Amino acid sequence: MRWLLLTLLFSSVMAHGAVILQYHHVSADTPPSTSVTPKQFRRHLAHLDREGFRVLPLPELIEAVRDGLDPRAKVAAITFDDGYANTWDHALPALKKKGWKATWFITTDKITEGDFTLSVEQLRKLHESGHTLANHTRSHPHMVRRLDGESRDAWLQRMRGEITEAQDQLEDWLGEPVPRVLAYPYGESVPELHQLVDELNFTAFGQHTGALGEYTDWHQAPRVAINRRYADWDQGLRNKVLALPLPVRSAAPADSVATQPRPELRLELAGNWKKGQLNCFAAGQPAEISVEAGKDQTGVRVRARQKLGEGRQRYNCTASAGDGRFYWYSRQWMRKSASGWYAEP
Questions:
Q1: Residue-wise pLDDT tens digits, 88-147
Q2: Same CATH fold assignment for domains 14-245 and 251-335
Q3: Which residues is 163 bridged to in the sheet?
């Protein structure tokens, strides 16, 4: 009986879902924090195939989620950030064997300046073969940071240029419109940027784990960030890729710049959830949780038990969805140092 009740609960709140995998380098010779080896990448594709995933081009996946998917459908998209040449050497042949199309988020200045990035001719060939090219800004800045002495209006104008100039450059290279899809550098964004991408009619993605569904915030949609340290399918990656969207109707605060060492996250979930169903973690450690259940919605408060370290930190909340799958929601915080913004590792 208990299992039947849980099944009815899950069925009543389950959102349509899909996942997006995010890679940077595909090489054994690049930094582990932004790389997977070619062997690891091939294994991931094999696991997706074995699990029965349908791998779609990113624009098709976005459209499918917005139109509604079967709740348990296994649908995924594969993306690469920055446009590194090793993805051409090692990822493209593996994708071709599967007949799958991927998306490359391109930082346009890197293409014209670097020896380790794809060439314009390679971008054109990717496009001609059915892969998607999309916007990763012109120069890959920390978009949330203002320059010294820069006003809010000047900062937003600079960020507008980062997006529109990259879009114009991609369309000039390809000779036709490019999907209005943006990946924030470092996965960092704030409400002012969400308003900007809305004005520019973009769908935008971060770098926090989760599945897409009915309540997805398309100003900062999730992607499963994968690197060499977290590339083992059976040591956690499978759970992330098989995730279903936790039905978060709203989340507060809207701003992910952490002004407190133990920021409180407030969620409103669709459905009636009990505290024992939810597991939340802050920077990998169990977090404090309080739950206030109503008739058709549940309020949840999550707070770290210890001070967050400087830099990008995450709160993750999960709940069992049965069949070895989990509902998943992630919030990326940006925790400043005492002297200001943190340095990149």
A1: 999 999 999 999 999 999 999 999 777 799 999 999 999 999 999 999 999 999 999 999
A2: no
A3: none
- Residue whose tokens read 């943006």: 182
> Which residue ranges make up each domain of the chain?
14-245, 251-335
Other residues' Cβ atoms within 10 Å of the Cβ of residue 343 = 8
Cα gap 226→128, rounded to integer Å: 27
The packing angle between helices 152-174 and 120-128, to 10°, is 70
Secondary-structure class of domain 251-335 per CATH: mainly beta
Q: Is the entire prediction scored with pTM above 0.85?
A: yes
Q: How far apart are the first and last CA of the chain?
A: 51
Question: Does 6 score more than 70 pLDDT?
Answer: no
Query: For the domain 14-245, what is the CATH code?
Result: 3.20.20.370
Token output for 20: 């997006």
**Which residue intervals of 17-151 are DSSP H helices?**
38-51, 58-67, 85-86, 92-98, 108-113, 120-128
Burial 36-46 (b: 16+ CB within 10 A, else e): bbbebbbbbbe
pLDDT-derived band at 3 (thresholds 50, 70, 90) equals: very low
The encoded tokens of residue 175 equal 């000779």
Contact 298, 271 (CB under 8 A): yes
Q: Are 83 and 94 in contact (CB under 8 A)?
A: no
What's the DSSP call for residue 130? T
Query: Distance between CA atoms of 231 and 227, rounded to whole angstroms?
Result: 6
pLDDT in tens, 32-48: 999 999 999 999 999 99
Tens-digit pLDDT profile for residues 314-333: 999 999 999 889 999 999 99
